[in-house]
Design goal:
Elements lengths: L1 E5 L4 H11 L4 E5 L4 H6 L4 E4 L25 E4 L1 H9 L3 E3 L5 E9 L13 E8 L2 E4 L5 E5 L7 E4 L4 E4 L11 H12 L8 H16 L3 E6 L3 H14 L3 E7 L7 H13 L2 E6 L1 H8 L5 H27 L5 E5 L4 H6 L8 E2 L14 E4 L7 H10 L4 H4 L13 E2 L4 H20 L11 E4 L4 E5 L2 E10 L2 E2 L7 E2 L4 H14 L3 E6 L13
Parallel strand pairs: 1-2, 1-3, 3-4, 4-11, 12-13, 12-15, 13-14, 15-17, 18-19, 21-24
Antiparallel strand pairs: 5-8, 6-7, 6-9, 9-10, 10-11, 16-17, 19-21, 20-21, 22-23
Helix pairs in contact: 5-6, 5-11, 6-11, 8-9, 13-14
Pfam families: GATase, GMP_synt_C, NAD_synthase
EC number: 6.3.5.2
Catalytic activity: XMP + L-glutamine + ATP + H2O = GMP + L-glutamate + AMP + diphosphate + 2 H(+)
Length: about 525
């Protein structure tokens, strides 16, 4: 394992992902973890992340010098670089010389372990106030910027490396290469980690954990729960039952996809609960977005509980249902304080909540994986492309993509428009470029149109294509005009009561991705 020491501000997650992209397994540990504990995990290398602090601040995170003396290769980035510099006797000044954003880097020493084979001038992403003016003894300065004399250094003999900038960020043009140079050349690690290892490991562990007991899993139609279920199915077969609640707010073909494609690919036992009427009744007359969300969440829990109670009643006897499968991902684990598994919980998250008095043991086979890795696992498990490469879709479904009251007619109309947009985006090969493209019906808005020589008075449909890395921030996708034109023409021709298609050109912030 390569440990990524987290000094805050979300850089660590990105670094851990980049390390895994280099096919080396990595995990994040907090900077408060004692060095002895880090070393006890036998890391092949340690990376120190950036962070929001200044090394001069009172109470700024520190590191025990022992970390640098254990013979483990260390790579410091940004704050981690400055910490390495100060801890080992270099000089970091609060010069007031700030650098933020894209910065030209001058590589001063060819033949350096990190920079070999990369250009003498490259663009890097900086974000710092303090600057290193003298490297520690025994270190060679390998790069500088117009402002910072020591922007990178290395001590090849001791296997210690550092850069002032953020190589993990896309804007650092040779960042991944430099990270790989550290891992492969500096630390001598063979790139061998694959998601295939995860499947074998998890299948064995789940078999061992579950024995002859039973497990249930709520399917949402999303990637994570599908892959988690498929993995557990591979391990324990018919001892797993999946529950899928069809609330009628799904997109065209989605329920069928779960019912047919997913079952065909996995052979899983599936209980589909048709709860469309129940949801429509509960949503009747409601226009407030938050109220809609609450109603959908509440009804979902009720239906899920009921289905679960039925499964438990059917299964009771020699094989009690003892386990609940959840598609928790590594970022969820890290964000909620990380660390080792919670064994016995009353779960109210992800699946949508469970009865208070039901205790389950959790199976979370994806809790060490990032989203793109989950997709790879799904692919290796033979799940269909349409499930594995699905773009994010909100739990409340189309219910929050109709601005106004949700009715059966409006849902059908939106489903048609959405299906056309998705079809054209896929045909244009844009699925991977676009993070997601909500299609929104402005049900309470009408505008005048002319179609077939007659006047129309119909509703607008909004296209909201966005590009994003994690949905926290997003930009509107600059899509080819001809694709937009095809979508617009088809929607206004083929969808009844729609006579206008508009494009949402707002980034997030200020707009959220969804309209409600
Ligand atoms: P917003 O609209 O907040 O959306 O910018 C960010 C991302 O989250 C998705 N989203 C949801 N996902 N349950 C979900 O599972 C929800 O209630 C929900 N609301 C928004 C949204 O599609 C986008 O990817």
């Amino acid at each position: 394992v390569v440990l990524v020491v987290d000094f805050g501000a979300q850089y660590a997650q990105l670094i851990a992902r980049r390390v895994r992209e280099a096919r080396v397994y990595s995990e994040i540990v907090p900077s408060t973890m004692p060095v002895a504990e880090m070393l006890a995990r036998n890391p092949k290398a340690i990376i120190l992340s950036g962070g929001p602090s200044s090394v001069y601040e009172e109470g700024a995170p520190r590191l025990d010098r022992a970390l640098f003396e254990a013979g483990v290769p260390v790579f410091g980035m940004c704050y981690g670089f400055q910490l390495m510099a100060t801890t080992l006797g270099g000089t970091v000044d609060n010069t007031g010389a700030r650098e933020y954003g894209r910065t030209p880097l001058h590589v001063s020493k060819s033949g350096s372990t990190l920079f070999e084979g990369t250009p003498a001038e490259q663009s890097v992403w900086m974000s710092h106030g303090d600057a290193c003016s003298a490297a520690p003894e025994g270190f060679t300065v390998t790069a500088s910027t117009d402002v910072v004399p020591v922007a990178a250094f290395e001590n090849d003999e001791k296997k210690l490396y550092g850069v002032q900038y953020h190589p993990e960020v896309m804007h650092s043009t040779h960042g991944q290469q430099i990270l790989e140079h550290f891992l492969y050349r500096g630390a001598g690690i063979e790139p061998s980690w694959t998601t295939g290892n995860v499947i074998d490991e998890q299948v064995a562990a789940i078999r061992e954990q579950v024995g002859d007991k039973r497990a249930i899993c709520g399917l949402s139609g999303g990637v994570d729960s599908a892959v988690a279920a498929a993995l557990v199915q591979r391990a324990i077969g018919d001892q797993l039952t999946c529950v899928y609640v069809d609330h009628g707010l799904m997109r065209k073909g989605e329920t069928e996809q779960v019912e047919k494609d997913f079952v065909a690919a996995t052979g899983v036992q599936l209980k589909v609960v048709d709860a469309q009427e129940r949801f429509l009744d509960a949503l009747a007359g409601v226009t407030d977005p938050e109220e809609k969300r609450k109603i959908i969440g509440r009804e979902f829990i009720r239906v899920f509980e009921q289905a679960q109670a039925e499964i438990i009643a059917e299964a009771s006897g020699d094989q009690p249902v003892e386990f609940l499968v959840q598609g928790t991902l590594y970022p969820d684990v890290v964000e909620s304080g990380g660390g080792t598994g919670t064994a016995n919980i009353k779960s109210h998250h992800n699946v949508g909540g469970l009865p208070e008095d039901l205790e389950f043991k959790l199976i979370e086979p994806l809790r060490k994986l990032f989203k793109d890795e989950v997709r790879m696992v799904g692919q290796e498990l033979g799940l269909p492309e349409e499930i594995v490469q699905r773009q994010p879709f909100p739990g409340p479904g189309l219910g929050i993509r109709i601005v106004g009251e949700v009715t059966k007619e409006r849902l059908d109309l939106l489903r048609e428009a959405d299906a056309i947009a998705r079809e054209e985006l896929t045909a244009a090969g844009l699925d991977r470029d676009i993070w997601q493209c909500p299609v929104v019906l402005l049900a309470d808005v009408r505008s005048v149109g002319v179609q077939g020589d007659g006047r129309t008075y119909g509703h607008p449909i909004v296209l909201r294509p966005v590009s994003s890395e994690d949905a926290m921030t997003a930009d509107w996708t600059r899509m080819p005009y001809d694709v937009l034109a095809r979508i617009s023409t088809r929607i206004t021709n083929e969808v009844k009561d729609v006579n206008r298609v508009v494009l949402d050109v707002t980034s997030k912030p200020p707009g959220t991705i969804e309209w409600e």
